Amino acid sequence: MELTILGSGGCMVIPKPCCQCRVCQEARLKGVPYERTGPAAFIHDENLLIDTPAEIAIQLNRCKVQQVNYLIFSHLDPDHVEGFRIVEQIALDFRSWKAYLEKKIRLIIPEYLYDRLKKIQSAYGPLIDYYEAQGFVETRSFKSGIRIGDIDITAIGVDRGSQIAFIYVFEKQGVRMVYAPCDIKPFPEHRSEVKNADLLVIQPGIFEAGLKHGFVYPGHHISRTTLYTFEETLELSYRIGSKRVLFIHLEEYWNRSHDQYLRIAKDDARINFAHDGYHTHITK
Ligand SMILES: [Zn+2]
Ligand SMILES: [Zn+2]
Fold first, then answer.
1. 235 alpha carbon – ligand 1 mean position (Å)
2. Which of 110, 186, 232, 234 is the most buried if burial means most Cβ atoms within 10 Å?
3. Ligand nearest 21 Cα, by number?
């Protein structure tokens, strides 16, 4: 399987607008790989786009993506869906306001998310209704798994109380990737599908030291209910036997530059930190 991380940032982009911190200033000066846009990825084998942050049009152009056949959402938080209108940007035939047939995008989506997707609206009503009516999107909802081309996709829900976020397992000819960008606690490590993956793509969680403002997360901080720490995430990756780990959804607040992440990655041959445009072939 061939994967590109279109955007390696988290719920804040780097540089965070107006921020004058060291990490943001360096990113403004040097651009990619220091700069990070919102969380999105692309599986080339089936032209599958995962999530649509606000910067998705720029990301697709920058990574020279020429065709999107499928779109899947991990969950519906704004940092992952703000750019949903990309389906119109891609598919619209300006003469008719309908889609070019060959540019229609198959939205593959767990039923639970499809029900909630209608809540994402413009002044004219649910976006999905309009996109389906114009033919930009053709929806294929599914319960827990679906096959597209040669890839089997398993959706594993993480119950976050107010909503369910999804971790996806992508498997092609015995090669397996687990994609878990955001809202992944409690991680479903009892599920056999997440074990011994060839690649685990996951957020690093909280860094305890070296944060902005010298902040130290107290033991009861609310973020600890939604995020693991970096050390816990590493331990998790060992417990579930991940052969390689790629960190994404890197928050501005972690106060770490691209160079600092490279140094952390030197300590463990299994791990890498993504940058925008990070490209990898996943093999056994
Ligand atoms: Zn900053
Ligand atoms: Zn997120």
1. 28
2. 110
3. 1
Residues whose beta carbons lie less than 5 angstroms from ion ligand 1: 16, 19, 21, 24
* Ligand 2 centroid, distance to 158 Cα (angstroms): 14
Distance 211 CA to ligand 1 centre (A): 11
| Residue span of the structural domain in which 167 resides | 2-281
Q: Which string of DSSP letters, residue by residue, matches 47-109?
A: TEEE---TTHHHHHHHTT-----EEE-S---HHHHTTTTHHHHHHEETTTTEE-GGG-EEEEE
CATH number at residue 251: 3.60.15.10
**Spacing, Cα 213 to ligand 1 middle (Å):** 11
Domain count, the chain: 1
Ligand 2 centre from 184 Cα, in Å?
A: 10
Tokens in use for 246?
Answer: 């790629």
How many whole angstroms from 1 Cα to the centroid of ligand 1? 34
* DSSP summary character for residue 16: P
pLDDT, tens only, 34-75: 999 999 999 999 999 999 999 999 999 999 999 999 999 999
Q: Indicate the pLDDT class of residue 160, thresholds 50, 70 and 90.
A: confident
pLDDT band at 255 (very low <50, low <70, confident <90, very high): very high
Residue 266 predicted with pLDDT over 90: yes
Distance 264 CA to ligand 2 centre (A): 22
Strand pairing report for 70-72 and 105-110: parallel
Mean pLDDT of 191-215: 96
The rounded distance, in Å, linking the Cα atoms of 101 and 162 is 37
